[in-house]
Design brief:
Elements: H1 5-20, E1 26-30, H2 33-38, E2 42-50, E3 56-66, E4 69-75, H3 77-80, E5 87-88, E6 91-92, H4 96-113, E7 120-124, H5 130-138, E8 149-154, E9 162-164, E10 184-185, E11 188-190, H6 191-198, E12 201-204, H7 207-212, H8 223-228, E13 233-235, H9 263-275, E14 286-293, H10 299-309, E15 315-322, H11 324-336, E16 341-345, H12 349-358, E17 361-364, H13 374-380, E18 384-388, H14 391-396, E19 410-412, H15 417-431, H16 434-446, H17 451-466
Parallel strand pairs: 1-4, 7-8, 8-12, 12-13, 14-15, 14-17, 15-16, 17-18, 18-19
Antiparallel strand pairs: 2-3, 3-4, 5-6, 9-11, 10-11
Helix pairs in contact: 1-17, 4-5, 5-6, 9-12, 10-11, 10-15
């Protein structure tokens, strides 16, 4: 419907799994222009919310269905009928805090209009962080929500939504909560920080990232806030949607394959080389990357490492969009190695699937990675991940150094190009050992990161929030 990053994958898939487990699940999201374009809906209610400043905002509630789950869209065109979700080509929307404060209030109002009394309201990231505050403070005396509890999932702690303190009234945040333990952060409002303080339970998307968020180095400034809620905080590794990401059923591949018969993978490698006009050779290792072009993804040390590594007899395919400076550097790299390197500045879903299947190794050298999904996708495709030892990458990738019998990928530690280059050179050498490669590919394709397991873990959190 409307997608940005791993948050969308979780929100779309977790609900359907909860329904499979017998629970009544409803998804509430803004009526983004992109969602209305693809999801048939009907208006099932209208209402308005009022902020303490006296501002009134009317909205319609649209109902549709996605993956078997009822979806309600909060329609308010001034806020959500825009080119992008949080930004457009001109930059980040200046009123994002107000937009999502309105959304949180409207979502709670919609529950009452629709007479849907939730046991758990599960919000995601700063966009829905105010749900816990509004429920505990504004709806404290509302019998409708007397048994409702809140869970907040942090998908990426780097995005917290700082906003000027002058907007306290506009966001309906009482001044008594504007202090270090709640919303105040260096003189500004920090929506995610306040959301953590008011949620009944807090989760993040991998056990390792949960540990990192409690350290000064890895918490993005949230260590104090999360430390106060340590007993209510845990990490749950995201599941993988194998209905979309599986070489056995992938509609984008020229040839499908499986753990039992991997012949089709070599045909996918040929197709990838042909599509990108690279020499069609089977005996050179091919390295793939599909990523947003941001500092988080490790380009500051990946690019210097590739300048050295591409002098070897290898091929590298990179796809992504985002930071224009990173894109310029990747284009420069392609121009310098025209027979070895390709950079596609875009997100093309069909090409992303082909890279996952056609590459021998998948590059994911993130500076930090709360969970990561591409390493899970690549393993299912028999494409060995090369990752940094952070976050969910540690929770899902078993490093080659741990022993060939269990390894499913490669890992390096310090965020330095020299360390990454050593790891890349190791993979190049391992590629020449067909017996070892076959074992690693077998291990990788045998992994299964199912949403059923993750859904059960979330259920345990929901039950704990209710007790």
């Amino acid at each position: 419907m409307a997608k940005t990053g791993g948050l969308a994958d979780v929100a779309a898939t977790l609900g359907s799994w909860m329904k499979k487990l017998g629970h009544d699940v409803r998804v509430i999201m803004p009526a983004y222009r992109q969602a209305l374009a693809v999801l048939p809906t009907v208006v099932v209610g209208v209402a308005e919310v009022v902020f303490g400043s006296g501002s009134r905002f009317g909205f319609a509630i649209r109902q549709g269905e996605f993956a078997g789950v009822i979806v309600y869209l909060i329609e308010h065109n001034d806020y959500f009928d825009r080119d992008g979700l949080y930004n457009n080509r001109s930059g980040v929307f200046a009123d994002n805090s107000q937009r999502f404060a309105f959304f949180c209030k409207a979502a709670l109002c919609a529950c009452q209009i629709l007479e849907f009394r939730p046991d758990i309201v599960h919000g995601h990231d700063w966009q829905s962080a105010l749900l816990g505050y509004y429920l505990k403070i504004h709806e404290a005396d509302n019998a409708f929500f007397c048994d409702t509890r809140t869970v907040l999932t942090i998908h990426n702690g780097a995005y917290q939504q700082h906003t000027p303190a002058a907007l306290l009234d506009a966001l309906d945040i009482d001044y008594r909560w504007f202090n270090r333990d709640f919303f105040e952060d260096h003189g500004q409002i920090n929506l995610l920080k306040g959301g953590i303080a008011f949620a009944d339970k807090i989760t993040t998307v991998s056990p390792r990232y949960a540990e990192e968020l409690q350290t000064d180095l890895g918490s993005h400034g949230l260590a104090h806030t999360i430390g106060r809620r340590k007993q209510d905080f845990c990490g749950i590794l995201n599941g993988c949607d194998y209905q979309e990401w599986s070489p056995e059923t992938d509609q984008y591949l020229p040839a499908r394959y499986s753990l039992q018969d991997t012949f089709g993978k070599s045909l996918c490698k040929q197709a990838l080389q042909q599509r990108l006009n690279l020499p069609r050779v089977a005996d050179k290792p091919l390295y793939g990357l599909v990523s947003r072009l941001t500092e988080q993804k490790g380009f500051s040390y990946l690019i210097p490492a590739l300048w050295h590594f591409l002098h070897n007899d290898v091929q590298v395919v990179l796809q992504g969009s985002g930071d224009s400076q990173i894109a310029a550097e990747l284009n420069h790299l392609t121009n310098a190695f025209p027979d070895k390197c390709r950079f596609i500045e875009a997100y093309d879903n069909s090409l992303a699937h082909l890279i996952e299947a056609g590459a021998d190794f998948f590059l994911m050298p993130s500076l930090f990675e709360p969970c990561g999904l591409n390493q899970m996708y690549s393993m299912k495709y028999g494409t060995l991940p090369i990752v940094r030892a952070v976050g969910g990458l540690v929770d899902s990738v078993k490093c080659f150094e741990s022993g060939v019998e269990s390894a499913n990928g490669f890992m390096f530690g310090p965020a330095q190009w020299q360390r990454l280059l050593l790891c890349l050179n190791q993979t190049k050498d391992v590629y020449k050992d067909s017996k070892t490669m076959s074992r690693l590919i077998y291990n990788a394709m045998s992994e299964s990161f199912t949403w059923e397991r993750s859904a059960q873990d979330y259920l345990a959190v929901y039950r704990a929030a209710r007790n």
